[in-house]
Amino acid sequence: MMPGRSGLTHNVAMGQRIATTVSPAGATIAYATAGSGPLLVYVSGWLSHLDLSWALPAERAFYETLADGRRLIRYDKPGCGLSGRATPEPYTMDRELDALRAVLATTGAGRFDLMGVSSGAAVAAAWAGRHPETVSRLVLYGGWPHGPAVAAPEIQRHVLGLVRQHWGLASDLLADLFAPDADAGTRAAFTRYQRESASAETACAMLLMAYGTDVLDLLGRIAAPTLVVHRERDRAAPIAQGRRLADGIPRARFVAIPGRSHLPYVGEVEPLVREIRRFLGLPVRRRGVAPALTARQHEVAALVARGCTNREIGERLGIAERSAEAHVERIRLRLDFRSRAQIAAWYVAAGGAN
């Protein structure tokens, strides 16, 4: 444990625990918990993957910041990440809220802090408007209340068509839109992560819902103290949409922060983290030191990223297959990973594949 200047302690090896539940509509929903303290429920944006997001150093560091002093709960939406396959019905706000309701019921959440990012901001706002008695504080980042106003109709049609017909190319182009300030490793890992999170069909259905979102009539019903944060030059969601979101919520506080990346964990992260922790009544947090691998473990991680089996790793490094297996297991435990796929994603994001 590392003491911060304010006396706050930071566990640099914070663990993530994953479980599943079933929504009232019968969808299997995977959710993750990390940290301890009062409950903070996090609604992700367009796509998510609980395992792979934990493997990206920048994204994981952001979640660990939120979980320092809070019990953070995240979940993958229906058909996304570790959750069950999507059903053929159209993706709707009710479906989004159904998944959130299932996670809240399973985790025993009564009254809690709620945070939504990107398209998840509208989901969080809708919940807070429909169930104001359950939300203590509401944080909305990079969101919008009215999807049709996020981009011109022709741009929306182009993006939807690209995702539907060329998911590989679309994921690369969208990585540039969402995270122009990301380093090469993080961008490469995020591009792969999008494709691993959902099929082209599911990604398109979820994006269509985001473009069709309209929660304007629910904003006035939100009773919780609300913080709306938006980057000044956000390339995916214009700042005017963030202001419109805040304007509709009684007594909401709007904060514009520097930057152009839409993903909260890319670019200038410290101003965002500072605003969120201050609003939640948490002390300033010092960043800890991420777990490090030995030189041999880096070699093994590189071979895992290339898709090598334990036998192939042993042959390439001149060690027994059992020794290679032991190295992989030590890497997994050191980084709090559950799979080889997470090791591979971590290696790419850390710049090892460049």
TrEMBL record:
CDD domains: LuxR_C_like (cd06170)
Biological process according to GO: regulation of DNA-templated transcription
Molecular function in Gene Ontology: catalytic activity; DNA binding
Domain of life: Bacteria
InterPro entries assigned to the protein according to its UniProt record, in alphabetical order: AB_hydrolase (IPR050471), AB_hydrolase_1 (IPR000073), AB_hydrolase_fold (IPR029058), Sig_transdc_resp-reg_C-effctor (IPR016032), Tscrpt_reg_LuxR_C (IPR000792), WH-like_DNA-bd_sf (IPR036388)
Domain HTH luxR-type: 286-351
Pfam family of the protein (one): GerE
PANTHER family to which the protein is assigned, alphabetical: BIFUNCTIONAL LIPASE_ADENYLATE CYCLASE LIPJ, HYDROLASE, ALPHA/BETA FOLD FAMILY PROTEIN
Protein name as catalogued: Pimeloyl-ACP methyl ester carboxylesterase
